[in-house]
Amino acid sequence: MASGINMPAVTAFAQDNDEMITMETVTKKATVTDADALDSVSDDKATDTTDDQKESIIVTEGQDFKVEYDEDSGYATKSFIFTPEADGNYVLFTPYKLQGGGYALSVLDDQGETQQRIGNTVRSNEYMADTFAFEKGKSYTMEFRNILVASNTLRIVKENKPVSAELSIDRSLPGMENEYSNLYIVPYIKASVTYADNTTGELKTSMLMDNGMDAYGNLYRLFAYTDENSWTYEVFEGSVSYVKDTETKLALGYQDPKNKDYTKLKECKVSYKTIDEADLDTIKEGKNTIYKDTWYKITVPYTATIISDNNFSSYDSIFTYRNGQMVRNALDTDTKLYKGVTYYIYSSFDYDEALEAYPTTAEVNFTFNKVNSPEITLGEDFEIEHKDDKYRTSDTYTFTPKEDGNYVLFTPCEYMEGCSLGISVVDVNTADEVMSVSKSNRRGIAANTYELKKDCIYSISFARYDSEASNSETFRLVKENKPVSAEITMNRTIPYDVSHWIYILPYISLTMTYEDGNSKKIDLTKSADISNDQIDEYGNLYCLFMSAENHIWTDNTFGGLVDSNESRLAVGYNDRKNDKYIKLGECSIIHKPIAEANLDTISIGRNTVQGSNWYQFTAPETGYMDISTSGIFDSEPIVKGMLDGKQVQLDMTSTLFIKDKIYYIWLEFKTKDESMTYKGDVDIKYTDMSSLPEMTLEREHNIDINSNKTTFYRFTAPGDIQSVRFNLKSDIEFSYKIYDQTGKTVISNNGKTEEHNTIDVIGGQTYILSVKADNRDNIEEGVQGSCTCVIQDIERRFNDLAEIKEGTTAIHYGDNDITYKEYVFAPGKSGKYIFKIDTSVETYTGIKDTSENDLNYTNGTKKLIMDCNLEEGKHYRFYVKLQNGKGNEGICNVSIERDIYAEKVITGLEIIRYDKTVYEIDAVNLEKSINYIKNGLHYKITYDDATTRMIDEDGTYQANDATVNMTYLENQGIKVILSAKNGKVVSSEFIIPFADLEEVPRVDFKENGITLPITAGIGQYVYKFTAPVTGYYAFAGDTESEDDDGFYGNIYNAKDLTDSLWLARDLLKAGETYYACVYTYDPECKITLVGTPEIKEEATCEKTGIKIVSKKKGNEDIPWYELEEEVIPALGHVDAPAWEVTKATAKAAGEKVLKCSRCGKVTKTETIPAIQSVTLETTSYTYDGKTKTPVVVVKDTNGNAITASNYTVSGGESRTDAGTYKITVTFKNDYEGSSSVNFTIKKVTPKLKVTVNKSTIIAGKNVKLTIKGAKGKVSYTTSNNKIATVSKKGKVTAKKAGKVVITVKSAATANYNAATAKITIKVKPKTTSISKVTSPDKGQIKITWKKNKTGDAYELQYSTSKKFTKAKTRTVKVSKNSTTSKTIKKLSAGKKYYVRMRSTDKSGKLTSAWSTVKNVTTKKK
C-alpha cells in the first residue's frame, strides 16, 4: 500500500526526458481533501458511471497515458486497464509537474473489487506518485475523478528504488564574507544513482530548483547543511553561501514514498578557495554563457573599457584581488581595465517581466573597447594631451616598476604657472590611490614622489583645472636619486662701489653629487626663473640662496642678481617631505672696486651680453655711441662711467665719450612683454668728433631733433674771440648740452623752446653741441621737430646794439604781435641802478652782463621796477619784450636812474595809511595775493641824513631796502610790519581790518556766464554768486587763451573759505554760494560755465568707462584747466553672498558657481565630484549582546571621503539582536539623494556542554545530565531507545547493555543558532543469578540460570580454585541471550568445581558483576 505525496515546492532533479517547466502563479488552491476524494469513489454504488458507459484503455508499463475528465461529473471519460507481467510493487506517477489540483483514484481487480482508493492533491509545480502491489497476470482497472484539473498525464512502471548515489561539485568556489557570498552552483553539480536492479542513471541538474523525479517515479531532493545542523536542515535552492570557518555540504536524499522520510544517498563538501585560486570561468570578448550569482574573471589583451548587452548587471562594480583583499571599483563605460591585471565580476540579472522571475542564465555579448593607455618608459619624457572637457583630463598611462622603491614623477621644464594640475597614481589591482611620499607644485613645477612596488601595475592620469592653460605638458618618471652634496663656484668679482644688482648666473658653476655616487654639472642658465625652485633630471627640487654676513643662509632666494650687500651663495635641496631646504654646498661672493673687478669688455660692433651687468668700454676716439639691440630688447641701457676718478651717470643718447678714457656701461634690458631677458646681442656704433657736422659763426643752422635720439654738432672757436652766444629756438621743447673738447659739460638746460646762452671759449678748440627733443607726455612714437641755432660773437654783438642812457627812453610798439628791443648800457658810476618800465601790456625785461649772466629780470603788466648793481667801465645788455599784439600801438617808457638812497642808512619806518577794501577772502591765500593787497599801503622812510621819502605800494615803485611783512589773522584782519633790509629797524604793527563779507557785491548768471562789473582798472576784486547748475566753471577774459588773460583769481566755497579753486574750472554744485576773488586789469573778466560732468560710457565690472573731467595744467604759479576724457576704472566683480549649487548625486557630479551680484557673470566655479560609493567598514558581526554601530564610509569619484557633515545616517536602531539592518545615508548640503546599505549581526552558536557524574551505569539505573551553555529550549534524543532512554528533563534511564549516544540540542533563538552536544553513555547489564549447578553425568556439570534481558550474551567461569586463579580457571562464552543453561563436559570425575557467571553486551566489553559462586562435585560414574 502507498500513500499520496504532498510536498512543498523545493529544488528538484529532472528525469531524462523532462524539460524545464515554467513556474506559474496558482491563483486557485485545491479545496478537495484526500477524504473527499475517497468518499467520491468509495464503492460502485456511489458511481453514476458504469463500465459499459465508458471506453477502457489498455496501458502498458512505462507508457504515458492521458486522463481526461467530464466537465459536469468530474469523472474520467475513460477507464484504464493495466496487467502486470510480474509480481511486485508498481509506481503510478505524473512524469511532469502539475500546476495544482490532482485526482481521486479507485483501483479494481479483475473481479471488480476495489483494491485501493486514493485521494491525491498537489500544490503548484509538484509531482504525484503512488505505489501499488500488483500480482502477475491480473488486470487492474483504474478509475479517476479530477481535483481541480482538466486532465492528467500519468505513467506506471515497476518499482526500482535507488540504493546508492554519486554526488560532486566539479569546481572550487571563491569564499568571501560579503554581499557576494551567495553563489549559484547548479551547472557544476554532477549526480547519478544506482538502482536496486544494479543499473545506474544520471540525474540531470537542469531542474535542481525543485523536486526531482526519475524515470521510476522516485523523488529526490538536494539539501545544504553544515556540521552544526542535520543534513536535511535546509533545502538546496540552487545557491550556497560561504560562512567562514564552517564546512558546507550538499546531500542527495531519496524520499521514502511510505513515510515521506528522506534517506541520504550521498553527500559532498563544497570546496572554497581564495578567489585567485578558485575555479572561475573567464569572460571573453564576444558571446558568453553567463549564470546568475556567479564570479567570473576577466583579463584584457590591452587596456580597454567593456560594455555588455542583454539584461546583465553586476551591481556596477568590478573587483581586483591583492594581498588577500577584494578591491571594489566602479564599473561603467569609462572604467579602464588594464592588460596584465585579472579582474573579477559578480553576475546578476535584472528582473524579467515576461518570465516574472530573475533568469538563471543568459547569453551575454561583451565588447572590449581599446583605449589609449601608453606604457611609461622609465627616464624618458612623455607628453600628455588634455582633452577638451570640463576637467581637461588626459589619457591614462601605465607603469610597472621592476623593483621596489620611490619614484619621482615630474615636469622637466616649467609648464603650469597660475593654474592647477591634478595627478592620480592608482594601483590598478587594489584601486588604492598611491599618496605621494612628498610633493611640490611650485611656480610651474610639479614633482611628486611615490612609493611603488615591484611588478605592480599603476595607472597614472592627469587633470587640469584651468581651461585657459595649455593643452599639453611634458612629464618624466625616474627612480628617486637624491643629491647628497654640491660644489658651487663663481668666477666673477662684484663691484661694491656701484648701486646696481648684477647678473652673475653665467659665471656660476654648479656640480651635484647623488646617492648613486654619480656627479652631474648643472646648467643654470637654462632656467627661465632661477629665483624659484629648479628641477634636475631626477625630479629633485633645489634652489640657490644668497645671504649677507651673519644672516641665515636661506635669507634670500638667488634670482641671478647680487648686489654689494650679499657675501655668500648657497645651494639647497628641497626635502619635500617637510618642505625644508638642506644645504648641499656654498661659496663666497668676492667684492672689489669696479676698476678692479674682472668685468667683460664691449667694443664697437656686435656684442653678446648678459643683461643687468657692468661692462668696460674704452673710447677709441672722442665721439658718441649708439647702441642698438637684436630685436628682443625693448629698453635703452643705463650708462655709468668713471670720469676723473668719480662715478657719474651718463645719458647714452647724449654722452660724449673722450678718447682713451675708460667707461663702465650698465646694460639692463627687458623684452617687449616686460619680462627680464638676461642674454642677447647688442650692436655698438661709434661716431668720432671729426665726423660730426660743423657749425660756423653768425649763420642759422637748421637741426632736426628727435626725442629718441640726440643730434651732435661741432664748433671750433676762431682764435680772436673770447666768448660766443648760442641762440636756439624751436617750435617744441628741447634739451641741449655744450661740451668742451675734454668732454666736460659747459652748459646744459631742458624744457625750453627758446634759449640764449653765452659761453667763454678758447680760440682753436672744438666744442660739441647736443640737442634732443623733450617727450614730457611720454608719447609712444616719440616727438620730432626742428630747431635753429645761431652762434654769435659777443663782442661784435655788443658793438651792434643801440645805447640806452640814464633818463627816460620811449619805445614804440604796435608793428608786430611782439616787440623785442635790445640796448647796451654803460653806467657812468658804479652803484645801484633802478630800471622803471611804464607799460600797459604784458612785458618781459632784464639786464645781463657780457657773459650773458642774468643780473635781474622781471615781467608783468603796466609798471615794473628792477634794480641791480652795475660797475663803471663795463657794458650791459638791457632787453624788453612787449606782448602787445599786432595793431595795438603804444609807447613804453623806460626810466634808468642811479639809486641815491642805496648808500644811506634807514633810521625809521612809519605806516601812514591803507586805502583799499580787503575782505577776509582776499587774505585766505595770502602768499598769492600779498602783492595785490599791499598796493593800498602808504609808508614813510627816514634816513640817517634826516631825509625822508614816501613809498606808495601801488606798483609805481617799491623800495628794495625795506620789506613789507603781512600776517593773516583769522576773523580779524591783516597784520603789517615794515622792516629794513639790514634788520635793525622795524615799524610798529598796523592792522588792516577785514570788510564784512555780507557787503561783497552779488552778481547773477545770465545764460552760461557772468561778466564781472570791473570799472576801477587794475586791482583785486571780490564778488559773490550762486552756481545755477552743477558743472565746471572758469574765469575768462577778452582773449582766447587763459594764460594770456590779464587776471588771476580764486573761487571759494562760502561754506569753507579754505576750499580754493585756483582759476576755477573745477566742479561747482548747483545752488551753492561761491566767492570769486580775482586780480585783473581786464574789464571784460567773466566767470563762465565751461562744461557739465558727463559720463560718456558707463563702466562695467570688466570694462572701463569714460567721463568728462577738469584737468589742471601748467604749474602752481600759472595754472589752467582743461576738460578731458578720463577713464572710469572697471568696477570689478562683486561676489554674490552665496554660491549657487547644483548638487552632486550618485549619477552625476555637481557644481558650485559664484556669480557677480552686479552683472551676474560666473566668477568662480568648483566641481563637486559625484558620489561613488556608500559602504560600511564592517558589514558582518556576530551577536555578543552589544549594540553595533558600523562606520559609514562615503567616497566621491575622486576617491576622497565625503565628510559626515554632508549627510545624515538613519536606520538600524536597536542594533543589538541578530538580524539584517538597513542603514540609510541621506545627503544634504552640496549633495542630494540617499543610499542604503545593509549589515548583518549573525547568530552565534553557543558552546553547549553536556556532562554526567557517571558515564557508565547498570541497566535499570538512571543518571541526570548536566547542561551548560544552552541558550534555547533544550531537547534530548538517544541514538538507541533499546539501550537507554532520555526524558525531557535530561534523565537517562539504562535499558540494556551497550553504548548509546545522547544528543542534547539547544534550540535556535533570535540571537543564537541551534547547538548540539553529545555524550556517550555505557550501559552494563544487570547481574545474572545462577539457579542451580548439577552434575548430570560423569565429568559433567550443568549450569542453569534465569534469562537476563539486559544483556546480549553470557560469560561462564568454572575453576577448581575457589578464588578462580588464572591457571585453574576456564571461561565459556554463551552468545545468545535466550540461552538459560550450559553443560560443560570432559571434566575430571569426582572433582569439585566452583562456578560463576555474568552478562555482557555483544562486544563482551560491557559486563555485569559476577554472580554468586556456586560449586558442584562431578559424578564419578
How would you summarize this macromolecular structure in one to three sentences?
The protein is an all-beta fold and 1421 residues long. 2% of the residues lie in helices and 49% in strands.
Please give a handful of descriptors for the protein shown.
disordered N terminus, 2% helix, 1421 residues, 119 strands, five-stranded mixed β-sheet, mainly beta, seven-stranded mixed β-sheet
Q: In words, what does this structure look like?
A:
This protein has 1421 residues and is mainly β. The protein contains 4 helices and 119 strands. The strands form 34 sheets. Strands 62, 63, 64, 65, 66, 67 and 68 form a 7-stranded mixed beta sheet that branches. A 5-stranded mixed beta sheet has the order 1-3-8-5-6, with helices on one face. Strands 15, 16, 17, 19 and 20 form a 5-stranded antiparallel beta sheet that branches. The two termini are 64 Å apart.
The oligomeric state is single chain
**Count of beta strands:** 119
Overall shape: it is elongated
Q: What proportion of the residues form beta strands (DSSP E)?
A: over 45%
Give the helix proportion (percent range). under 10%
H/I helix tally:
4
Mean pLDDT: 81
Question: What is Rg?
Answer: 63 Å
Based on helices, strands and strand pairing, what is the structural class?
Answer: mainly beta
Major sheet: size, sense and barrel closure? 7 strands, mixed
Low-pLDDT sequence parts: 1-52, 954-958, 1038-1045
N- and C-termini, Cα separation: 64 Å
